[in-house]
Amino acid sequence: MTTRIYFDNAATSFPKPEAVYEAVDNYGRNIGASAGRGAYSEAMESAEIIQRCRQLLAELLNADDPLSMIMTFNCTDGLSLAIKGIITDPDSHVITTCMDHNSVLRPLNALQERLGIDVTFVKADSEGMVDPLDIEKAIKSNTKLIAVVHGSNVCGSLQDVNAIGRIAKKHNIAYLVDAAQTVGHVPIDVKAMNVDMLAFPGHKALLGPLGTGALYIRPGFEGRLSTLKEGGTGSKSELATQPEFMPDRFESGSHNAIGIAGLCKGLEYVLERGIDNIASHDRLLCERFLEITDGVENLTVYGPRNLDCRLGVFSIRIAGFEPQELAAILEKEYGILTRPGLHCAPLAHKTIGTLDVNGTTRLSTGPFISINDIEYAGRTVVAIASLKSL
Which residues fall within 8 angstroms of residue 362, CB to CB, at 6 or more apart? Predict the structure, then answer.
């Protein structure tokens, strides 16, 4: 089998634009310096690359201030900073959903164990959709945070984060969105969303290297957020305390500048291709996969049928096959690379009814997946379900 089609973009995107590889190589060979740790030209160039990345992120997300983009090492890093930075009082209540990822669930669990905080897990329907009104009904007098995943990494359900943002603003509750699966896939406007914090990786749909990501913090909100780590920033070195200004308040230690150099080129690709065009392409892929697999006996495709409410993340099960077994067949016999299991989201699998059967086999699209690729994948899973060969 020589065909190798990468359908694991929900984990990390592959391939990357050629310019991403070139930027990483150039940084490693010709720049090499740590930003803010020298006055020579290479150190200055490193700082310029990081600032360029912030500017591109602000442009993509319609943020007013590039300094509101805190560089992190992944989405999990940003979510931990947001959750643990805002929840410091034992008498705190947090609202999240049953579709959220362990990167939200586990920090909240840790805070429950350490501080005794109260957490409400708002349920979703069988397609993975959460009713914003259920979130509003869950609000208590001591609710300090609403943390919601935008797009499910299990079944692709796309939540109405704008409606939830209006609810959070109405009740003056801090609002955090996990945009791991959506930044770079669909248009996002942090001002229209009324979001206080938005965490996302650089290595998924933004097409950057692993070890990159960011946390957007609404200007003026940063004072409500405690730091998780303190240390060298290359600024105000005479102080024994962490600088208060952004972004240094939340960025201690040397940056992953070599990764950020690659992320800049990934962002340039996304902006040049156009987020609306990327979203339209993703929608077309969703439409074809759902059409091909619709109504096939022995085959279940989870998640919304409404294209307005989903991403190109498909969890499937075929009767008679364990998820790991199906993934192995898809790779070895058909060259289709997928991810089986629970996808670090056990409550989401409980919601769709797959927690106790070892999860699903997941196919996830990206900007370099073609219509031919998605049709091949769709026909393949139909053929397996029908016990026929292609």
Answer: 8, 10, 154, 313, 314, 315, 316, 338, 339, 340, 343
